[in-house]
Amino acid sequence: MIVDDEVGPRESLRMILKPIYDVHAVENGQDALDFISQEKVDLVTLDLNMPGLSGIDVLQKIKRLQPDIAVMVVTGYGTLDNAREAIGLGAGDFISKPFRVADVIAIVSKALERRRHNMKIKDLIQQLQAQRSAFNENKEISSD
Question: What are the structural domains of the chain?
């Protein structure tokens, strides 16, 4: 999902990513949150400087709704402070506008691979916890 109030960057990102990925684009943070609450989203490219909800506000809400969504900040108003804040809130990367096509593709690919890896680890942990619980239940039953 691409979230950017500016048509140019939003459409540029859409055109770059559409041949490779299923892409949905919105022009504001509330539309992004509405979409995320109803659909499966793996990655969000997020502008910081938008009317209404700021990108930082949207990032916080995304991570509360679905913490496993990968978020990349793509902004023309990047500072070291807002990069630190965004990364501290769970953004996986920070790209300045204007961006290069090769950089966008590489960073999105890397972010999705990192998300897949993290999801596999999370699933493995859940399986191990379930096996441990089943083992403990069986142990209690056999002790009685």
Answer: 2-112 (3.40.50.2300)
